[in-house]
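Okay, is this right?
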Amino acid sequence: MTPEDRVRALGFWSGQPKIEPLPGARTTLKFVVTDPSGRYVVRLGQDIPEHLVMRWNERSLTEAAGYAGISPMLRHAEPGVIVTDFIPSAALTKADLHDPATLREAVELVGRVHRDLSRRITGPVLTFWVFHVLRSYASVLGQQGSPHMMKLPMLMTEAMRLEEAVGEIALVLGHNDLLPQNIIRDEGGRLWLVNWEYGGFNAPSFDLGGLASNSGLPEEAEAEMLALYLGRTPGQDWIRSYRAMKCASLLREAMWSMVSEITSEVDFDYDAYTGETLARFHVALDDWNLT
């Protein structure tokens, strides 16, 4: 059965569905589907244990975020399938987040996740502690004979240093995958978050560091982002902990790509992405070492 046949066979449709592929997937297949009742986004994907992705967790967070007005509403789910409302929109780009007004809106949205969704969510939810993720990735890479195995001792030594530097945290519900394209702007100008594969309880600084690094924020814009989120200028101890977590978020992205190189069937240039994100990690790590 093709992915399109899988979508077509869902019992959710009220008539013959029109199915259009949605490009840009890195771990799931996505489609925009139109039937007489409306337009929807369909995500197809099984659990990905090597990435600690569990679809029941994604479903729970997608549903809660929809009721909170943070994400499109969940309309249907079954094993391997999530159907949400389609919102006519455009995904943000790095350049969009360099605009002060857009950055402010994005920070407000992240704050709503950390405050409102943390209080709203009930039942089983995963914890996404990045240093546990890194240790798990190192295990998978070792077992699978990754070409990056020689790098692992150094990378994991740095990860231990970063975890110690992060120190105590305030636990919140996080999105944990704040790539610009996971923030969309609808036709009325409102921002929404999509794709909750990696959602779970985490430190606020992980989302903030991911937003800054994935958007390539200049230093002044990053400082403004932190002040907006905290409602004050952060102290040096907080900044050092934040920068350690930002390094960890970049290392996680690099090791995510290393694992995907040997496990994923998605058509994506993981080799190039590993090199790019690993280089960014080393730049951030050098900056952190100088603080």
User: Anything to note?
Assistant: The chain has a mean pLDDT of 94.
